[in-house]
């Protein structure tokens, strides 16, 4: 959920909210009530599950083959090449520092320490120093091992360390798997497909030795869990009272900041038992990987970064972004003449404090919805939205012109050439003498553009590759008016506003239709000729999705 | 935002000095050592910004005749970068062998630096969006296409890997930027997109 209004989130067709399960599956599941086609069922943006299907435009990819939007859960990731390292520094804020030379000057003993520049912690606090600045992880591991082993004989019967326990457990499970596990594997290569067949044939011909036969006849034991420390079970005992008491004592004397958080404890197996901050062991930073994304349904690559690691910029071999393939919606209020400054681009400190004003309920407001078309063909757009927004607060939404066309996006040159002409339309009048003179010549004054009334059925504004229409929204009230009959407990509970209920979000179903000439229809070619070719050699294409427009927050004052 | 007043030809001095290469430098920006600062073109330095170009590495070879090697650049800023109001850009310095040495700072293209931030980073690569009131401590390195949320403090010597979203004090990598980061903005009438082409934003700053 974006913190700044207005925003647009697009729904990926992967979830049940947007697309019903295919009928073959829904027929099998008795519990699944067949849902109507998406046009009939409304997408409720306040549904708690809706958050998982909505994404802003920069997180969406598009699959050419399926011709569908793909969200982050729909593109499986593959790690294609070696992790990239953080170039020099092993972990953020901590670096290897310092040579310490002996004061005599004869022997130069160089030691290195880890030091954090933010909080001034250094590895001297735990008594760790290094002999050379490279291979720090190795040196750390060696020191850790020696420290643990020197501690354990002193304390007597110590439980095994984490690493040993893990190793024991891993071998135990492997044994279990082989003992109880699949009889299929040994027989897969033989011409006798089932174990019964093989056993029968072998018994006919005299078969194997006694041991082997016994083994095959034994019922495989079900897999069991580890039973002792040798097999990898870690027992926690309450007998070690002294250590626990000492720990509790120190937790009482030291303050909250000195106890470890769950995040710190989970950072490494070495730290799993550390309860106090001074028992933590330094952990090396994870290496990062470059992921390539593939569509989950068809194995088409959607994003494939260049494997060359040392390339300065993140270059991509393939990158299919949703914003280059789907019509993009954006909304702004009709009253403000120019688009509101994007809060991310706050240029002045005073603008930072500015909170966007709340929307007053019950007052009709008009918004301009702009659809931008990124593809090279003109598209026909049909918009649909429920009359009242679903969710706790019902606002009435009317689209004045639900069906219109948007022109094609030109090449980069077309855009550059035409930007000089179209920007004239958006410059506020009165800027310079020449502008005003031009307008007086053409008869379009400043007043006229402000007085334009939005009309039903007419497009508000049309530029080369975008069209704007007007939306009328009457926000609902957060609290219903007090009635004569006092409300019961349950009704009062129902009226409790949950977080996010006061956000005015409008779900819109967008359908785009366009035609592609046959030779340009690459995706259709790959699918194999199931498309319907019109008489004039064009292929009809259609794309439809749900989209949620975040308009603003509804204030009190109904 | 209030509507800009009508500006007549014979107005008082405008807020920004425009150079030949399209850079806009505010008259209220405090710039020291301007011969050591390179602005690549179409960049904006807004009012109240402090650029310390006077803190540069002293040349070790004083008597070389005419071979000084050209001006020493203390701060290098790329194309279409925006430095908002009240920022401080100061090259990082280190004390070594009893002497203070400054290192040249490199800021890439399409970098947006929010208002009130202190930048002492060693380098900031291209398409980075830095929020308001941040602190980038000396010798930190910000790789390309990163987003630094407002009010973060990046500790010294931290290397921020490309494509990460960073926040907090001390700064931690909390996520990655989306696939389409930086794409799709800057067209006519469109909003500016973080990490995208900032030329439209530069043009709109008056």
Please give a structural write-up.
The complex is a heterodimer of chains A (558) and B (206). By secondary structure, chain A is of the alpha+beta class. Chain A has helices spanning 23-28, 136-155, 162-180, 184-187, 195-204, 210-217, 241-253, 262-265, 349-353, 412-426, 433-442, 446-451, 489-494, 522-527; strands spanning 7-11, 54-56, 61-63, 68-70, 75-79, 94-97, 113-116, 291-295, 301-305, 316-319, 328-333, 365-372, 379-384, 396-399, 403-406, 461-462, 466-474, 503-517, 538-553. Chain A is built from 14 helices and 19 strands. In chain A, the strands form 5 sheets. Chain A has a 6-stranded antiparallel beta sheet, with no helix packed on it. In chain A, strands 11, 12, 14, 16 and 17 form a 5-stranded antiparallel beta sheet that branches. In chain A, a hairpin with a 5-residue loop joins strand 8 and strand 9. Chain A is extended and about 90 Å long. By secondary structure, chain B is an all-beta fold. Chain B is built from 1 helix and 23 strands. Chain B is globular and about 55 Å long. At the A-B interface, helix 10 of A face loops of B. Chain A: This is Dynactin subunit 4. Chain A: Belongs to the dynactin subunit 4 family. Chain A: Residues 141-160 are annotated as: Disordered. Chain A: It is found in: Cytoplasm, Cytoskeleton, Microtubule organizing center, Centrosome; Cytoplasm, Cytoskeleton, Stress fiber; Cytoplasm, Myofibril. Chain A: Keywords: Acetylation, Coiled coil, Cytoplasm, Cytoskeleton, Isopeptide bond, Phosphoprotein, Ubl conjugation.
């Amino acid at each position: 959920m974006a913190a700044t209004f207005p925003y647009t989130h697009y729904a990926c067709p992967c979830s049940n909210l947007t697309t019903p399960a295919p009928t073959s599956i829904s027929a099998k599941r008795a519990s699944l009530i067949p849902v109507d086609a998406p046009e009939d069922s409304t997408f409720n943006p306040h549904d708690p599950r809706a958050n998982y299907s909505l994404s802003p435009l920069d997180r969406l990819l598009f699959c050419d083959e399926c011709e569908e939007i793909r969200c982050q859960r729909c593109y499986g990731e593959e790690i294609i090449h070696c992790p990239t390292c953080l170039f020099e520094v092993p972990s953020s804020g901590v670096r290897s520092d310092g040579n310490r030379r002996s004061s005599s000057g004869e022997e130069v003993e160089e030691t290195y320490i880890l030091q954090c520049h933010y909080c001034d912690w250094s590895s001297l606090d735990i008594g760790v120093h290094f002999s050379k600045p490279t291979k720090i992880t190795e040196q750390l591991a060696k020191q850790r091992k020696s420290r643990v082993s020197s501690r354990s004989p002193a304390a007597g019967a110590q439980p095994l360390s984490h690493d040993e326990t893990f190793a024991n457990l891993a071998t135990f499970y492997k044994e279990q798997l082989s003992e109880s596990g699949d009889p299929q594997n040994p027989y897969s290569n033989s011409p006798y497909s089932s174990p019964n067949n093989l056993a029968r044939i072998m018994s006919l011909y005299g078969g194997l030795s006694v041991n082997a036969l016994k083994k095959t006849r034994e019922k495989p034991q079900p897999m069991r869990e580890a039973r002792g420390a040798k097999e990898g079970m870690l027992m926690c005992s309450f007998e070690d009272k002294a250590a626990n008491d000492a720990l509790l004592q120190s937790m009482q004397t030291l303050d909250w900041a000195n106890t470890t958080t769950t995040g710190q404890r989970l950072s490494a197996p070495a730290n799993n038992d550390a309860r106090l901050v001074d028992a933590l062991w330094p952990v090396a930073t994870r290496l990062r990987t470059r992921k390539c994304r593939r569509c989950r349904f068809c194995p088409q690559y959607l994003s494939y970064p260049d494997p060359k690691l040392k390339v300065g910029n993140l270059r991509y071999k393939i990158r299919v972004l949703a914003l280059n393939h789907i019509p993009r919606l954006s909304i702004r209020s009709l009253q403000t003449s120019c688009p509101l400054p994007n809060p991310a681009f706050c240029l002045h400190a005073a603008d930072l404090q500015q909170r966007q004003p709340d929307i007053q309920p019950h007052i009709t407001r008009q918004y301009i919805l702009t659809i931008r078309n990124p593809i090279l063909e003109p598209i026909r757009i049909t918009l649909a939205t429920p009359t009242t927004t679903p969710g706790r607060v019902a606002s009435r939404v009317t689209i004045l012109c639900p069906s219109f066309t948007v022109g094609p996006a030109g090449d980069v040159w077309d855009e550059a050439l035409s930007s000089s002409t179209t920007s004239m339309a958006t410059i506020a009048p009165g800027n310079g003498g020449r502008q005003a003179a031009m307008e007086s010549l053409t008869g379009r004054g400043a007043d006229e553009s402000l007085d334009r009334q939005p009309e039903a059925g007419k497009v508000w504004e049309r530029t080369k590759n975008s069209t704007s229409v007007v939306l009328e929204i009457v926000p609902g009230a957060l609290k219903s008016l007090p009635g004569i009959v006092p409300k019961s407990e349950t009704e009062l509970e129902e009226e409790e506003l949950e977080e996010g209920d006061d956000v005015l979000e409008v779900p819109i179903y967008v359908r785009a239709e366009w035609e592609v000439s046959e030779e340009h229809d690459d995706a259709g070619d790959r699918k194999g000729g199931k498309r319907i070719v019109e008489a004039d050699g064009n292929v009809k294409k259609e794309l439809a999705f749900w989209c949620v427009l975040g308009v603003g927050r509804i204030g009190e004052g109904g | 935002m209030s509507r800009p007043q009508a500006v007549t030809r014979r107005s008082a001095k405008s807020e920004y000095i425009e150079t030949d290469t399209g850079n806009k430098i505010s008259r209220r920006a405090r710039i020291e050592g301007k011969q050591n600062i390179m602005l690549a073109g179409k960049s904006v330095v807004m009012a109240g910004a402090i650029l310390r170009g006077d803190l540069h590495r002293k040349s070790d070879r004083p008597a070389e005749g005419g071979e000084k090697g050209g001006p020493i650049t203390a701060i290098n800023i790329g194309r279409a970068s925006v430095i908002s109001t009240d920022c401080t850009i100061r090259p990082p310095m280190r004390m070594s062998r009893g002497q203070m040495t400054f290192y040249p700072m490199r800021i890439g293209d399409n970098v947006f630096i929010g208002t009130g931030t202190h930048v002492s980073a060693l380098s900031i690569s291209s398409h980075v969006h830095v929020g308001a009131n941040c602190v980038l401590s000396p010798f930190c390195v910000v790789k390309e296409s990163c987003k630094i949320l407002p009010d973060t403090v990046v500790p010294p010597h931290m290397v921020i890997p490309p494509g990460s979203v960073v926040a907090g004090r001390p700064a931690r990598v909390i996520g990655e930027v989306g696939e389409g980061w930086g794409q799709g903005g800057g067209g006519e009438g469109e909003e500016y997109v973080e990490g995208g082409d900032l030329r439209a934003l530069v043009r709109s700053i008056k």
